[in-house]
Amino acid sequence: MASTIKRIALQNKSSGKISFDDLARLAPVLQTQSDRDFTPLWGVRAQISVLQKGDPVPTGVWPVYFLDPNDPDAGDGSFLGVHQDKDGQPYAYVLDTGDWTVTASHELLEMLADPFGNTLKSGPDMDPQSDGHQVNYLVEVGDPCETFSYTIDSIKVTDFVTKDYYLANTNGPYDYMGQLSKPFEVPPPGCYISWQDPKDGHWHQKTPDGQFTDIGAIDSRKNPRDDRDSLSGEKEEGRHNLQKILSAYQQKSKKN
Predict the structure, then answer these.
(1) Mean pLDDT lowest for which of 5-14, 63-72, 154-163, 190-199?
(2) Which comes out higher in pLDDT, residue 251 or 163?
(3) Helix (H), strand (E) at residue 247
């Protein structure tokens, strides 16, 4: 059976350098990435369009909004990424800064893979201080490899993990670009992953700086992604500021 097509619209809300024409050039690139690269691996299809600034978002369309860095909706960074509106419909925020085309690709693919932020995959606890018991990883397809990107028609888009990434004892590939060599690999600096540990009832992360942290108790009444985000608070900015992450990655690469 053919998969349902998710309708996505790009819309500029920034006053910065991004224009309607920029989004009109980006849309077919994201369409190619979705059709050619993502759908064969994840089985999710998208139809991507562009809205003029200020146009209403049609019913059933999931918007990707482009914001100024100082936009109130961007807040301290915790409102960036993928969320749900009051009617439960997914939307995403992208900052008009740095490698914004990579960020847009990242948020689009994460919205397609897990639009409601509630998909968890079981796997061994990666924390080296753990006994390796089974924990539940939140599926975010761009985060574990977000320092890697490739180009389509000279426009940069994000790398992303495959379904095999969340399965132990598989042969891969584990990400589209072939940068990862095993399931649940999170190369520092800049990449990260979040998981629920049923043993202690807490959320844990491997953060962009490579640290393993306990960020707080799980609230089972909340949507998993929203629960994680509420615990991360202002630390979200570090996870969503791709320019800062890429800068750290490039500095580390030069040292090595």
Answers:
(1) 63-72
(2) 163
(3) helix 242-255
CA distance 159 to 152: 12
Q: What is the pLDDT of residue 146?
A: 92
Token pair recorded at residue 118: 């509630």
The label of the residue with tokens 């990107």 reads: 149
* 49 CB-near residues (< 8 Å, 6+ apart): 7, 8, 9, 10, 27, 61
Round to whole Å and give the CA distance between 50 and 38.
20
Instruction: Reply yes or no on whether the pLDDT at 185 is more than 80.
Output: yes
Q: SS3 for 134?
A: strand
Distance CA 205, CA 193 (A): 6
Token couple for 199: 């043993």
Query: 181, 151, 153, 149: which is closest to 165 by C-alpha?
Result: 181
* Sign of the four-CA dihedral 42, 47, 51, 54: negative
- In terms of pLDDT, which residue wins out, 114 or 70? 114
Rg (CA), the chain: 17
| Contact between 11 and 63 (Cβ < 8 Å) | yes
Q: Which domains does the chain have, with CATH numbers?
A: 5-113 (3.30.379), 120-255 (no CATH)
